[in-house]
Amino acid sequence: MSTSLTGTRPLLHATLRHDGRRFAPWVAIATLLTASSVVVYPWVFPDVAARRLLAVAIDANPTLSLIFGPAHDLTTVDGFNAWRALALGGFLVALGAIHAVTRATRAQEDSGQADLLASGVLGRSARLLTGVALAVVGSLAAGVVAGVVAALCGGGWESSLLLGATFTASGWMFAGVAAVTAQVGSDARTASSLAVGTLGLLFALRGFCAALDAPAWTLWANPLGWTLQTRPASGDHWAPLLLAVALTGALVVVAFVLQARRDFGQGAIAPRPGPARGTARSTWHLAVRVNRAPGVTWAIAFVALGMVFGYFTTSITDVVASNAGVQQILASGATTPDELTAVFLRTVLSLVGIVATVPGVQVLLRVRSEELDDRVEPLLAGAVTRARYYASHVVLALTVVTVNVLVAGTLVALLASRAGIGVSFADALVQGIATVPAAWTVVALSVAVVGARPVASPAAWAGVLVSFMLTLLGPTFGLDDWVLGISPFWHVPLTTAATPDWSGSAWTTLVTAALVAVGFAGFRRRDLAR
Amino acid sequence: MSDAVIDVHGLSKSFGRFRALDGLDLQVERGQVHGFLGPNGAGKSTTIRVLLGLLRADAGTVRLLGGDPWAHVVALHRRLAYVPGDVSLWPGMTGGEAIDLLGALRGGLDERRRAELLDRFELDPTKRGRQYSKGNRQKVAIVAALASDVELLVLDEPTSGLDPLMESVFQEVIGEAKARGTTVLLSSHILAEVESLADRLSIIRDGRVVQSGTLADLRGRTRTTIHATLARTPDATTLATLGSARLDGDRLTATVDPTRVGDAMAALTPYGLTTLTVAPPSLESLFLRLYGDDEGPR
């Protein structure tokens, strides 16, 4: 073991210096998430009365607990911070850890950089250890910085640090997961898809179990549930984090064993000879071909998402019935149960729409990465206009979004219509279809960015992030309508209303068209691979 | 003029503050194999990317097959094929699939020639992109380009990574293309390849063509080297007629103008030649002079 780790120290040193800063955005965003909760909460919800109202609003919209987990105590700043930041912060740091490990291991083997390193005086396991160490250090930094900054901004020290520790624990566990998937998948894309898929699945399961008050063991069986069990600010249990540390250790050991058994540059599955002749003869076929594997994965994910959200929708009446605050609102006549259900359905389907923009944006970003990998040049040296090449990918991205929303929307509609909660199949499906134009707008932003300003490609994610934040968090912060209106999902009409107002959809479609036009004009004019 | 397949005048292209091309002129006649040479970073690939309409020229006129490479992309690209120097294949796609895709996007390829080229280059089309070595990736691009019937081949260091056996197959195949009347722009560092294939050469340095002409033209501008062993030591006046001559014991090294080799022989014969080599200017010495010279040729 000792010689197989030779050279880890200088390699880690160099990696921290050159790749360490790539972890900075994850540290920053996790810190921002928790610090902003601490700073903004006393300001927006100054007294206990206002906070109780918020608690009622959150309870009335179980979609929120699907993402954020249960709100144990919203009367204190720390309690609010724990509710708002724990799940998302851990998720983000885990994503950062997955990328750090994959980049330092599998991605290097793909690019050939690993050959260069491995030919030096470097033990067989040194690169994997370096990747894991980078993620471990990065996650630790995220936890410590987030905890200390939140405490300095006015949070309680213990609960803030515990919250930071849950970020670190999430990062560590998924560094372990990514270390294993890097041995299983035979290239970087597969490896990180496997790890991110695991993260997404566990995250959805945790939200589902927490929102439905499932038996406690369902949370203990889920590693991401452990961070929830620490309950910062409403119990402060540190012990569940030990489980996370143990799991991390176990996963890393498994990864080392797997790595020792595989060949350099190969995965667990040996590649077989492929077809000698090709069937992809156009840019459209190529776009489909290149995005096929992630497309299939996402389609499966949306079937699962549709099932989870569908079952979740059927429980709306139970959730509402058990909630005293909601009963009060209903009794006062401010809203009707049907209206409450309709709004709830719209939120659930908007969430589906927002998640569906992710594969759409990925298709567009793939255009950029193909370009940087010098694979677009030989294509455009053929008799292909740039507009046609780009259009193939744009159409594919919009199709992927549409299909995914419709798949999940149909399942939600099917399950909701059979539950006797006063929602018909057609109503729910139409609501799902009404969500599609909003999702297109988010994808159109990435069309504009990749087409016209490819250097700013990461900005393509801005649409997804802003939509998510505004749709889910905006209303609870009492933001003005014009701010909420930045998210295209705010304009999705309530289709079950007596006279649905479709003008919002018309406007977002107009914005979509403008953004797509900007993207095409840019892609036609700019230098390629620059 | 009407027969120029590539006609570039005063082409400039900058990336930020870096001036990659600075008033480049390049003419390639129909049916010619034109060698395009220059040190690393001189602007060869940038020129080719402008010719392919991938980069937009900042200044100058560029005509390719009688059209504007930026505006008439599709019409022009049906008539040309391109081999990049650094071939990047889709990791999960087999070589055969990539060849068919690239061929189809150009407007179809010649089935018979596709099969023949795969055979001659000993390329296995069933392997995936990520399994190929550098040389084999290069072969995929070469087969894809040469399997279609085109008027112009644009080759950017096409043989980097090929073994000598495959290198000679490549030279044969280009020779056949030339016999069919195909025009070839061949950017390369392998001087032997250029020497055996090219009719004309253009040498680029710092974004500008510094010399252009036939191989004989360019050779004519450098001097022939003479190595001789002499029985008797020649006197100073004889040595002076030889230009730059150096005597090391009985061994003489001199460089003379190629037109004056006969005069030099006549001057040296009386001194009893025992060994003699007369080396024509090699392409290599030409390049060493052009690449290495800070101010370039005058």
Automatic annotation (TrEMBL), chain A:
Stretches that traverse the bilayer: 23-44, 82-101, 132-157, 163-182, 194-217, 237-258, 295-313, 343-365, 394-416, 428-452, 459-479, 504-523
Keywords: Membrane, Transmembrane, Transmembrane helix
Name this protein carries in UniProt: Exporter of polyketide antibiotics
Taxonomic source organism: Cellulomonas phragmiteti
From TrEMBL, chain B:
Swiss-Prot/TrEMBL keywords: Antibiotic resistance, ATP-binding, Nucleotide-binding, Transport
Membrane topology of this protein: Peripheral membrane protein
PROSITE patterns according to UniProt: ABC_TRANSPORTER_1 (PS00211), ABC_TRANSPORTER_2 (PS50893)
Domain ABC transporter: 6-231
Cell location: Cell membrane
GO molecular function: ATP binding
Family membership: Belongs to the ABC transporter superfamily.
Name of the protein this chain belongs to: Tetronasin ABC transporter ATP-binding protein
Native organism: Cellulomonas phragmiteti
